[in-house]
Write a structure and sequence with these properties.
Blueprint lengths: L1 E3 L2 E4 L4 E4 L2 E2 L4 H12 L5 E2 H9 L6 H14 L10 E4 L3 E4 L4 E2 L13 E6 L5 E7 L4 E4 L17 H8 L3 E5 L16 H15 L4 E6 L2 H11 L4 E7 L13 H20 L2 H11 L5 H14 L2 H12 L14 E6 L7 H10 L4 E5 L12 H14 L1
Helix pairs in contact: 1-2, 1-3, 5-6, 7-8, 7-10, 8-9
Length: 390
């Protein structure tokens, strides 16, 4: 929370107040304010604002100028006084009002550390799970590219942990073959992943809880919710899909594209060549800046082995929960980036049609993993928080 010039700005709650009263602003205007205030130690170039707030979409200088004008008006400033946002001609803009940071710590005291535990599956796989935060339980189904230790400080997942653990006892885990869990495993696939979720929930001692599934973790969460209707109170699916790339391929071209994905994964990890992994970064995070791509690549390197990469991608491609989804009975929220390259919006529509009574919300983003400083992030927070407390 930031306090300045008679205003309060809450990036996580997507809220701006002036004189104690809420101020309604467009998402891009809010994104401009957040980025400027968080980088108030320097002049922010125009091109940086365009990249961060609008990503790869073409936006004219006049559109940016209009958003700056709206941002100034929202905080009681204007282009003549420039008491909050100053224009540095030929360079960019700088947030110049004195700022008081309220609650600088990203997490409350009880969320500053995580406890890492281990449990053993019936087939001898040791699974790592972590607990942090206080409050009612919330379980996050595992997805690929997680590492309980590394993601704690990674800009890819750190803000997700901070948000989810802010009001819950968050339980998350590394799936078999990934992160701190055993990498040398025999069984791969949806059934094994659902059984691992069952084991983690039992080991953590939670009886009934909301369940969040992101990416392929959504399919795991769907099957678990169908299998355990008495334990899942609410289901949240973010960037999820019902059928993997090969399972939904209908043409030879689509099958070739899915097979190319497997080959690319194998080559990129085996060669240890960042250029190949960069292709994955550009698919997962097309709207993100280069530093986020680098962090994503770093997390990829620490997450799993070359052999497991291809096994994961092959298993993901064959996932199909289309027969299971109609039997889900808990309240379900589906949130999806409208321009997601990795998982097309058609998959979100399919989930919404199959899961009875589900609600679908699209985010104005192309990122498969929503980043902390894009306008879609506070929208995601608001939608999920509102759903969980309903």
């Amino acid at each position: 929370m930031y306090r300045f010039h008679g205003c309060e700005l809450d990036p996580r709650g997507f809220e701006l107040r002036r004189g104690g009263d809420p101020v309604r602003v467009e998402r891009q205007v809010f994104g401009v304010l957040v980025h400027l205030i968080e980088h108030r130690d320097r002049v922010v170039p125009k091109i940086e604002l365009l990249d961060v707030v609008w990503g790869n979409r073409f936006i004219s200088d006049s559109a940016l100028t209009t958003r700056l004008k709206d941002a100034r008006r929202a905080v009681g400033d204007d282009g003549h006084r420039q008491e909050v946002i100053a224009t540095v001609h030929g360079v960019g803009y700088r947030f110049v009002a004195p700022v008081e940071v309220i609650g600088e710590s990203a997490l409350p005291a009880e969320c500053q550390t995580q406890e890492i535990h281990y449990c053993d599956s019936p087939d001898g796989v040791r699974l790592a799970y972590a607990i942090c935060g206080e409050g009612p339980p919330l379980v996050k189904a595992a997805n690929w590219l997680t590492h309980l230790d590394h993601e704690w400080s990674s800009i890819i997942w750190r803000h997700w942990i901070q948000w989810l653990a802010g009001a819950h006892r968050l339980i998350r885990y590394d799936e078999r073959g990934c992160g701190l869990s055993d990498w040398d495993v025999t069984e791969f696939g949806l059934d094994a992943w659902v059984e691992d979720l069952e084991l983690v929930a039992d080991s953590a001692g939670v009886d009934q809880f909301p369940l969040l599934g992101a990416s392929q973790g959504g399919a795991v969460a769907i099957k678990y919710a169908e299998r355990h209707p008495d334990r899942v109170s609410q289901l949240v699916l973010v960037g999820a899909y019902c059928r993997g790339r090969l399972a939904r391929a209908r043409t030879e071209e689509e099958r070739q594209e899915a097979s190319l994905d497997l080959t690319l994964g194998q080559v990129s990890w085996r060669r240890g060549d960042a250029a190949f992994r960069q292709v994955f970064a550009s698919q997962f995070l097309p709207d993100a800046p280069r530093e986020t791509w680098d962090a994503f690549n770093e997390l990829q390197r620490a997450t799993t082995s070359v052999e497991n990469v291809v096994r994961f991608l092959d298993a993901f491609a064959h996932i199909d929960v289309s027969a299971v989804a109609p039997r889900v009975r808990c309240p379900t929220l589906i949130v999806h980036s409208r321009d997601d390259i990795r998982v097309p919006e058609s998959q979100a529509h399919e989930l919404a049609k199959l899961i009875p009574g589900s609600r679908l919300v699209f985010l104005n983003s192309a990122n498969h993993i929503i980043t902390e400083h894009e306008p879609a992030w506070p929208v995601l927070i608001n939608e999920v928080n509102r759903f969980l407390i309903a």
